[in-house]
Structure formats: C-alpha cells, structure tokens
C-alpha cells in the first residue's frame, strides 16, 4: 500500500480538465505501485484541495469490488470533512490492508515491496 497526497492539481492539469482519478492513475505509475510480484499494489491518493480520495489497485486485485473501494474512500472523506486528517488516512490504510490480507494472506518470507513513507507529489 502506498499513500500519496497532493495539495492541488497543477495548472496544465486543471486546464486540461484532468480529474482526480486520472491524476491518481498517473501517480500510481510514477510511484511504480504496479511493481509488485503479485500485481497487488494499491495507491491511496489524497487531493487536498478537493478533499478527494482515489484508490487505484493493480490487476491482481480485480476480485475486489468497486463498492469495497468506494466504502473506504467515503469513510476517509467523511473523516477529512470533520478535520480528522491523520485519523482518516490511518483508517483508510488499515481498511486497504485488511482487504489485501483477505485476498493475499500473509506468508512466511513475505516482504514489503513498496515504500512505507507517504509520498508528497
């Protein structure tokens, strides 16, 4: 799981009508979240200006329903609207982690393939 936050879309993105979802897909690629052995990387992207959360999951997680991802996003967005920024992010990361563990149960010798440090883009 990677978490990335961005203050706002840049001017070219705004003029091009780039959506938060499109930007999240760009960031997913830039941070190489797709670069996992089981294609199970997940990006939680926060666009601060819009208080918008987007979750982009690699193809190994196609079995997870769009509704499951949406519930996580809505829960995080509710926390953001209340000003509970840190807690909203933690709740989201924990929820995504539980989904990952359900579809990819931990095994001996597993290692973290993605950086834990939040990305500011």
What labels would you give this structure?
single chain; 121 residues; alpha/beta; four-stranded mixed β-sheet; 4 helices; globular
Explain this structure.
The structure is a single chain. The protein has helices at residues 11-15, 20-30, 66-81, 85-103; strands at residues 2-6, 42-47, 52-57, 119-120. With 121 residues, the chain is α/β, with parallel strands linked by helices. Strands 3-2-1-4 form a four-stranded mixed sheet, with helices on both faces. Helix 3 packs antiparallel against helix 4. It is globular. The two termini are 16 Å apart. The model has no long low-confidence stretch (mean pLDDT 94).
Provide a quick synopsis of the model.
By secondary structure, the chain is of the alpha/beta class. 42% of the residues lie in helices and 16% in strands. The protein has helices spanning 11-15, 20-30, 66-81, 85-103, and strands spanning 2-6, 42-47, 52-57, 119-120.
The profile of the biggest β sheet is: 4 strands, mixed
Kindly name the structural category. alpha/beta
Count the helices. How many? 4
Helix content: 40-55%
The topology string of helices and strands comes to EHHEEHHE
The strands making up the biggest β-sheet line up spatially as 3-2-1-4
Low-confidence stretches: none
State the assembly state of the protein chains.
Answer: single chain
Report how far apart the termini are. Answer: 16 Å
Number of E-state strands = 4
Radius of gyration equals 14 Å
Overall outline = globular
Q: Tell me what portion of residues adopts beta-strand conformation.
A: 15-25%
User: Residue-averaged pLDDT, rounded?
Assistant: 94
